Structure formats: structure tokens, C-alpha cells
Amino acid sequence: MRIVLVGPPGAGKGTQAKFLTENLSIPHISTGDLFRANISQGTDLGKQAKAYMDAGDLVPDEVTIGMAEDRMDAPDAADGFLLDGFPRNVGQAEALDAYLAAHGLKLDGVLDLEVPEDEVVRRIAGRRVCRKDSSHVFHVEHKKPKAEGVCDECGGELYQRADDAEDKVRNRLDVYHRETEPIIDYYKRQNLVVTISALGPVAEVTQRAMDALRREAA
Asked: Which amino acid positions bind ATP, per UniProt (predicted)?
């Protein structure tokens, strides 16, 4: 299957991508991973991206598109993939359509994870990360540490990252609504969008997603 995963920040795209790709035996292709891999490997596209990022500029669409196309050309993506974070806007969606058409391929579905805006803010603004080990993540409501402000795992100080502050989260949501949400309408015109609620336990959301994708592919 070839799937595009969309949803606002805090919808759980990374978590769902992990379980969906395991269930479907396809690679997870995320924009963040593409950038990290290309920059660390020193590819031409990575060097271009790093130059823009070091200057504080946005990486142009053509660089991101080039990275995504190179990754989709990899042997492990021959039978399908799940795209996460790409396409980010309608221009990138059009480029993806052109790439697929040139290779005689098509998307099987666009999975839209739906979460109320206030829930997104609660999820992200409530996160607390350990200063000693950033993989230790807690939440003021859903995963409270035994002692307030102290990591259960290593005793490090828990803090709220600057970009998790409520005003920053709402700004990220504004960017999502302005830049990325229009691709949902773009794909709706192709009858590719399946929207599911991303509320509830992770396993239930994964099952909901799998059921929706099977119906779409049928």
C-alpha cells in the first residue's frame, strides 16, 4: 500500500506510523528522517537543506521533494510506503502525484487523523521532558511522574520544552491549518481521504486506521 498520513501536530502520527508500517510491512518515510539522513550522509540535497537551515530559512519544496523521491526509489519502498510529513502543502502533493504517475503508481489512501484543537494543546503543552535523557517523556495529566518535576527513570529534572508552550503550539496549529490542511481537500477531490478519530488508546486508533484503510483499498 502507498499511504499519506496527515493530521495536526499532537495527533500521534509518529506513533501510528510505527504500528501501521509494522502491520502493513512497508517503510515509514518521514520528513524528519529524510532531512537527518541526507544531512548526516552529506548528500547534495542534504548540503542544500543544511545551508538553508543554517541561514534560518525554510528549505525550498524542490529540495524536500527531491529527498522524498530518492527515498521512494529505494528497493524497500518498491511494494509501498507510508509518507509522514510529506506532502506538506498542495505544491508537494502535486509533485507526488507527478512522481507516482511517471512510475505507473498511485496512492491507495490518505489517512487523516482527526483531533480537536483543544486536545492537541493539552497533549503537547502538558508534556514534560527529562533534561538528562530526552527519551524520558511524561505528561501532567496522562503520565504523571511519581514526584512532581522529577524523572522516574533517572531522577533528572523534568521541564517543558520551549516549543511545547501553549502559544507555540497554537502557532504550529495555525501553520498546519494554513499550509497543510488544504492537501486534505486536494485529496478529497480524488476520493482518497479516510478520516478517523485519533482519540482513545493507541491500539484502538491503530485498529480504526487499519479498518479504514482496508475499506478504502477494497
From this structure: 10-15, 127, 137-138, 200
